[in-house]
Design brief:
Layout: H1 2-12, H2 32-38, H3 53-66, H4 78-89, H5 93-110, H6 114-117, H7 120-125, H8 131-147, H9 150-164, H10 170-186, H11 191-209, H12 212-226
Helix pairs in contact: 3-5, 4-8, 8-12, 9-12, 10-11, 11-12
The structure holds 2-acetamido-2-deoxy-beta-D-glucopyranose (NAG) (2 copies).
Keywords: Signal
Protein name: DUF19 domain-containing protein
Signal peptide: 1-16
Length: 235
Amino acid sequence: MLRFLIGLSSVVLISGLFNPLLPSIGDYMLTESQIKTFFSTGNKDLALGTCNSVPFASAQAGFASAVGLPSTTTWRNADVLTNATISMIDQGIDQLASVCAARQLFVQTLGFTYDTCIDRFYLISLGNTNWWNVMQYTHLMKHLEFICSTGFDVYQNNIDCIRKGETTDGNQYRACFYKFNATVNANPNRFCDATESFIGCIGDFFTQECNPYVGWMQCELERIGFAYDCYGLKC
Ligand SMILES: *[C@@H]1O[C@H](CO)[C@@H](O)[C@H](O)[C@H]1NC(C)=O
Ligand SMILES: *[C@@H]1O[C@H](CO)[C@@H](O)[C@H](O)[C@H]1NC(C)=O
């Protein structure tokens, strides 16, 4: 029954949200088994660290409340968390700042255990989950890490043209993802090459759409999600 529910919940967002403010795992159009294959090659050391369940629970409750969800929402509901976070960020820079404040508190609560608590291998080891969910969660946290630090000022100054990647010029933006999907499926054993072209495509799109800073930032935002399994990617 649980397995069925997990399978079902991953189908809901399978087509992707294609939100240029916050990538989500559905955007890559990968199957659950492709996600497992491509996102499980990297270093497993972090999973050996410590994540204490009590502070982890309280950190998660705080974050969930901050994005308007019941405080019982956890990493096991990664699609729902991602969706709520995107909905909030979409409302404007003030809401992005609130999400970042909540993320800051989340990190402070976990302290040195933060990296392990959001590590994909650690979360998989807790059981009753799948790679889709775990990668959705890990990507959410990793992307917020960047958006809330290096990316914040660039977002603040360019929010309108970045949003055009979702609205007016959404087809061009999404073309990078469709090309990625076609490349990966044509040549599954060259996933990292496909990734390199993909992040370049995103960078070129936003350089034209906005300026080179945004091009770099959006490329970097995507790079972060792949960097643990594809080494040497550059923007
Ligand atoms: C995602 O968020 C939108 C807007 O808040 C909501 O209508 C939709 O039901 C949500 N979907 C999921 C899977 O949480
Ligand atoms: C991804 O590419 C495969 C192979 O070309 C294709 O069958 C599939 O429909 C594509 N997925 C989407 C969501 O377009």
